[in-house]
Each structure stands twice: as structure tokens, then as C-alpha cells.
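Is glutamine placement plausible here? Inputs below.
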Amino acid sequence: MNTPSAEISIAEALAWARKHIPPPEARLLLRYICRTSAAHLAAWPEKPLPAAQWEAFQHFVKRRATGEPIAYLTNEREFYGRNFLVNASVLIPRPETELLVELAVAHFAAVPHPKVLDLGTGSGVLAITLALELDRPTITATDISSDALAVATTNALRFGVTISFLWSDWYLLLKRKDRFQLIVANPPYIVEGDSHLTQGDLRFEPLPALASGQDGLTALTAIVAGAGHHLENGGWLFLEHGYDQAAAVRSLLTNAGFTDIASWKDIAGIERVSGARWKTGQIKSS
Ligand code: GLN
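Reply from A.M.:
I modeled the complex. C-alpha cells:
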């Protein structure tokens, strides 16, 4: 890439970047590097860019031009109105996952002190958002990646919430007697070898957080199979899954003995979350 070397203005920097990445992405990266607003960039196009910021901008634009996700460059992504730390150890939070939060909040609005388990927490967005949205919950969050748990722990500190983080392969290291009123998970569910894994942001995200077996259902099957051992009677399980997996997940839930089985559509109109109750009865508050 040819890069201008002398002192350069905001407008010149953006013009250079536009040869490599789309203009909105260039503006976003420059705003991030300069810690400034879009209005400021637009108002002062002739303002010179300090050398260190110009260096950083070129570095970011070059990385973005190779396809690296914006969220991994800026180390942040918004979820449910809050800004979370993300890096290449964790999946980038998706807007469709907010549906899981909405369902949990709708079902538990009247339950004080719910006991909640988030399996495969990644950056911690589900556990932390539920900690902030539910009524004084007790939350346990697991992940098999210690690098992901480091990100989640940092996010919990950022938002001042207390969560019991546990390094575990799904339920494996939970105590046998640990029971919850709500279990949520956004597990890996893409078919191994699926062409999406070699496109766009997914190329840079951790594969174990995305792909799960020949049918994409390995993790979902394990989570449904173990849920009955860790749900209180009347407790809920909500699972995010792939665009074409709702019927398969509902049948996993049926076979495992769940009741009140349903699927819900995401903002794109796709059945994205399925959920069910363990046996029947009231949700007990602790
Ligand atoms: N929804 C994501 C995607 O298709 C995958 C997330 C996941 O596997 N949990 O890009």
C-alpha cells in the first residue's frame, strides 16, 4: 500500500483510507483512534493528524483491509445498549442474541433473586446483561476457554457485577447439587466445514465458539441432555441456535422431557431461540 508520509490532514487520511476500506469504516476507525466524534471529524477536515494517530490509523486500515473484524480492532462491541470488551478469544456479540436476554427478562421479571447459569459465556455479554437486567440474580457462567473467561471477568469488573466464573466443559465442573431457575446458552452451532466459516468476520473468530460437529448440534445436544440435572422444577432453558435448527432443538427438548417448548424469532424474522421448562410447577424464588 502506498501511504503519504508528510504531515497529513483528517480529510487526506480519510481519502487515503477510502482506497482500501469503505468510508464509514474509515471514519469509525479514525474516530476511535482520535477518541473523537463524527461531528468533530466532519467539522475539521483540514486539521492535521498527529503522527502517532496517523501511524495507528494506517495500521488499523491495513488490518481491516485484510478482513479483520472492526470489533477486534477497536476491542469493543455494543450489546443490549452497553459497550463490552471483545478480542479474538471471544465471539463478537450479535444483535440476534439480544432476543435471549429479552426472553429471560420477560420470563423472570417477577422472580426475585433468580439463580442463573450461562453456559459458554465467551465475552460474558449474556451473564453480565442478565446480572444488570434481572432482580438481584445469582449468576454462574462457564467457559472452556480460559482466555474467554479473562475477557468475561474484565467485562464483569467494567460493569461492577459479581458473577461466579467457572472453567468448565458445559456442566462438567458444576457441583452435582447445583440447580438453577434459568439456564441460557449461545453455544457453537454451525456445521463443521460450513462455507460461512471461511467468510467475513467468522474467519477471525474462535472456531470452537462457532462450529459444533457434523450437524452443528453437538453442543446443543449436550446442553439439553444435561439441563435436567441442573434445573429446578419449573425452571427455564433458553438456547440460541442456527436459522434452520429450531425444529431439531425442539425435538431434543421434547425427548429430554421438557414442557412448554417454543421457538422465538429474531429481528430478522428467523427462529433463533428455543426454550422450554423443566417439568412443571412454579419457579421457586430462593
Ligand atoms: N450466529 C452466529 C453466526 O452465524 C454464530 C454464533 C454461534 O455459533 N453461537 O455468525
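Short version: Residues 91, 94, 186-190, 202, 210, 240 surround glutamine (CB under 6 Å).
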